[in-house]
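Note to self: user wants both folds in one dump. Writing first protein now.
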Amino acid sequence: KNIVNNYSEAEIKVREATSNDPWGPSSSLMTEIADLTYNVVAFSEIMSMIWKRLNDHGKNWRHVYKALTLLDYLIKTGSERVAQQCKENIFAIQTLKDFQYIDRDGKDQGINVREKSKQLVS
């Protein structure tokens, strides 16, 4: 999928960090992405992919949750432009405080996204 869509190295790393796998993004991968935020071109690609992931819903709730996790990490360790862009797009993060998804077993998976978004905007 990465080759077909001609994703850049930065986009592939973000997609990997925000995958639907049941485990979180590795700290080494998040560190690599944070370092890439200092490159102007990579920064745009990273943020664009993160905003795309934040717009996922339903069964792709992990994309959203992991994008918030990555964003939290990048705000703390990446380029200051990450925090700046988050401030400019705070509404996109705030709306996730109402994120809803109940899985097949009746478990509320949306709570993870709701809590993480609350934490990010506070």
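First done. Writing the second protein, which came from a different request thread.
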Amino acid sequence: LHLKSKGVSKVILTAPGKGDLKNVVAGLNNDIINPSDTIISAASCTTNAIAPPLKVMDDEYGIVAGHVETVHAFTNDQNLIDNYHKASRRGRSAPLNLVLTETGAAAAVAKVLPQLAGKLTGNAIRVPTPNVSMAILNLTLARETTGEEVNEFMRNQALHSPLHKQIDYSSSPEVVSSDFVGSRHACIFDAQATIVNGKQAVLYLWYDNEFGYSCQVHRILEQMAGIHFAVYPRQA
């Protein structure tokens, strides 16, 4: 329908794509975008938040299985007061309740990282805050590690890896959700919260589910439009 609108030649969906539609997370698999593509999906804010750290953790440690729990700011899909909703619990008042619900982000990761297909489960808790969410990755790894090692690894990813625009790093013991409003990253790794016991690792990721995700969409838009703003110092 969008493509039938006058003057529209390309469409980016800001929601998970179904069927064979390409799901793209900037920084991870945007190399699959072709000039001939007329419609693609930029996945969801949660998929953008969890896919980059899942990718680097799988590359470094190997992910055997995992569960993704999102503590998500309420959205306009919910009701302000108790009312009908096709997903029963989401019909309850969003500003007054914690709402246990589902998320498709864990399954959607497989469209971006096929190697993790069937390895992740997920659910969500909608909370009465307007912006900034958290994803908790509970991972079973292929080898043992320590919290210090994981934190140092994620710090290096945030500073020096090709995913430095997607992964940020915080070691502050004082941060809360509102401190990350306006973050341009897909996620912020909270080093203070890391829990590791042998092959079990729990990672806490903050993300601005509005602006941070919008920045990810903008990165895809730049690529589709063939526009790249100058960066100084210029990259080799």
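Dump finished. Worth passing along: The mean pLDDT is 93.
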